[in-house]
Structures are given as C-alpha cells and as structure tokens.
Amino acid sequence: MSPSKVSTITFDSFHNIVDGQQRGGKEKHHGVNPATGEELWEVPVGSQQDVDDAVTSAQKAFESWSQETVERRKELLQKYCDHYMSYSDEMTDLLCAETGKPRQFAEWEVKGVALFFNHHMNLELPEERIEDDEKVLLTRYTPLGVVGAICPWNFPLILSLGKVIPALLTGNTIIVKPSPFTPYTTLKAIELAQDIFPPGVVQAIGGSDALGPMLTAHPGIQKISFTGSIATGKKIMAACAPTLKRCTLELGGNDASIVLPDVDIKKVAPELVMGAFQNSGQVCVATKRIYIHQDIYDEMLKEMVNFTKTIKVGAPGSGALLGPVQNKMQYDKVKTFFEDTKRNGYKFAVGEPDVAKGNGFFIQPTIIDNPPNNSRIIEEEPFGPIVPTQPWTDEEEVIKRANNTNTGLGACVWGKDVERAERIGKRLQAGSVFVNSWEKPTPQAIFGGHKESGIGGEWGQEGLKSFCNPHVLHTYKSK
What we know:
Elements: E1 16-18, E2 21-23, E3 28-32, E4 39-44, H1 48-65, H2 70-85, H3 88-99, H4 103-121, E5 128-131, E6 135-143, E7 146-150, H5 158-169, E8 173-177, H6 184-193, E9 202-204, H7 211-217, E10 223-227, H8 230-240, E11 246-250, E12 255-259, H9 265-277, E13 287-293, H10 297-309, H11 328-343, E14 347-350, E15 366-369, H12 376-379, E16 386-392, H13 395-403, E17 407-408, E18 410-414, H14 418-425, E19 432-435, E20 447-448, E21 450-451, E22 454-455, E23 457-458, H15 460-463, E24 468-476
Helix pairs in contact: 2-4, 3-4, 3-6, 4-5, 9-10
C-alpha cells in the first residue's frame, strides 16, 4: 500500500476528497465569518454520486487497511500528525476565520489535536484470554468497516479528527462530513491526510444537510459517529435502523454545577464563569446551570459578576477572551433566551437584556439570577453565553434538581471537602463528572452521555471498542 499524493496545499481553495483525489461539484456553498458576517470561500456541495464513490473506495481500502498491523497504522498516524502540525499556523488562521474564535483558543484547538494523536499512540487494542481444562477463549476486537463521521461546528478539528484517529487506529476506513457552517479546516485536514494514507482510507465530503441522510442510509457504511443536537441524533438513530448500523451519538447537555459552602469564593468564581462561557458557551459539555449554596450565594454571584464584567468579547486578534456565536441560526436561537428572560421579568445579574445588532454574531456573557425551575433558561440548553444561577440548602434536594433533566452529558461539583464532593458526583446522572474543575473532556477517558445526551461513547481505551466488533475464538483442546 503506497500513499497517494495530492497537489501542493493551499489555503484559499477547498475540495471534497474522494478516493485520494480532490473533487469539485456542480453546486457550491460557502461559510460565513461570524465576526464580520462576510462570506468565506466556496466549497463544493457533495452529491449522492460522491457518497457512492467514497463508499466504494473506502470498502476497497478496508480490505488491505484492516489487515495492516497496529504498529503500521500507528506509524502512519504519527506521520499524519507531524504533517498536520507543520501547517499549524495556517490551520489556526483558517479556524479563526470560520469560527471567530480568539486566536489563542483557535491555536489551542489546532494544537490540541496532537494530544489525541499522542494519546492514541500509547493505546493497544484490547484482547482477553480465558482458559480452562477444556478450552481457550480469545476475545479480540476487529474493525467494523466503513465509518461515517458527521461532525459539528463548535470544535471542527477536535471533533472530526477525534473520530478519525481512533477509527483508523482500529483498522476502519472513514468518510468525514464536516458541518456546512465550518467546512474549511476539516476539508483541509483530510486533504493533508492524502499525503500519508492510501486512497480511500480517509475521505471527506462537505455540503448541505442533505448529505447526512445519504451517509446514514448507505448500506456500505457500518457505523455512524455523530456529534450534534439531540433532535438530529434521534433522526440518525432511526435512519441507521434499517441497515442495523452501529451508531455513537454524542448529543446535547444541560450540565449542572453544584457549589458547596466551603469553597474559596474568589478562586472558584472565575472558574464557574469560564465553565459556562468557554468558547462563548458553544460547548456541549459547558456548564448550563449553577447551583450555589445559600450561605455563599450572594457573595459568589457578586464575584462571578465582577469577573464576567472583565471579559472582552470581540473578533480574533482583538485580544478578546470570547468570540462570536458561530452562525446566525444559533445566534438567533440564543437571542430567544434573552427575550424569554426579559419577557418574564427574570433578573439579569450581568449582561445585556437586549442583544445589540451588528455585522458579527456577538453576545455579551450574561448571568440570570435565580430564575424559576420551569423557566426556559433552566430547562433548555441555550448553547450560547447565558447561564442561570440558583441557591440551594439541602444536599438531597439539589442532587434531585441537578438530575431533573432529560440529558446527562457532564456535571461539576466544587468543594474543599473532596470526599463529600465525590460522593455527590457519583450520584449525578451524567457521563463525565468533574470535581473542582469545569468540564474538560480528555482523550484519555471515554466520553459519552446518559439519557438523551447520547448512545455509547468514544475516546480513551474503552472508546476504541466502539469502532470494533468483538470477535471470540473458541479453541477446544485436543482430546
């Protein structure tokens, strides 16, 4: 197997990648710079023919790629990492343009991908052996086949390559569909991969929302890995049923933070704020509800407000801590939470009751002081820089309040009494619980949700199994 080479990498033209080759399309679409409202570069809209061709190529590549040793796959993944990182400055510029992230956070995402590569270089496919007097049972994990990765717009590189790396390590081939809102960095990352991997091992097709159903319906795809909204995740699960595709769904959350009365208020207040407003609140596992013990509620809220007032919101390169909401659709959705809060007379502890109009999709970070339990801002996920706080006094009651949601992605508990914090954390119905930290998922641990926050999980040693079938060899000893 010898790698296919693509043409010299440029960062002002974008193509789908099918069978190792750049491919255009009859239809075009473009992203929008959320900091300016200006149109970005044209991107081809993938067609059914593109999907069919990509699946055929991926199936052919799977025959040999799945038989490569894990050591060889790791060798090529390391070469891919090095190749990708050699373009880190260009990728950072591109990520700033398509997401509006402040440059330091765009650079963190671009370089954070290397952590995923490096961690997976240290993993081995699990193998379990059981022997008795009669037989030996050897349980291995073998690749599924062709994987379809449907990726979101909030962390386009981390959440696309976070699927590519374990899929390839386990011997699968993969077709990546980037979000139409942020196609550029993902298409370019997959273009770079063609210099390393044989044709068909990793491909990318961008386009409209019509492309997702083409992948989920295709009988030649064995798994869909999806990160996105609960509503779309339910549609994907239903679409996978006719062909019994495996699917991993990492969906939305309404993550609660419980703050115990013994915390250092001045130290914890900024951390609570960052947990809620990191990436302008556009994080599936961001803090969405903050429950502060009544004894320290007023003082903690005051410190949170003081820190929030220091946060600068602006375009990349402006020295801002927070950028814009990534797209107009989400911007308009977040504004409805402001409208609902204002209409119902809930208290704005800090922030702007009316979101200013402008070319970019900017929203000042906002805290809502003690809205009722049945308010939209408590019950729903805004996916933007607005968060509610509520006081609590009874531990059992606040645990029930935190768990009173149809979601269960992440949660936090803050307290100097770590034993108490961990005890509470173990009772929170969420896939990832963080004690004395805001939500910081890591490639070292499996990441997935409870309830309607998803099905299955990926990342970490255990996450490798989601890209595999268990294969048991029963060997009976000769008589």
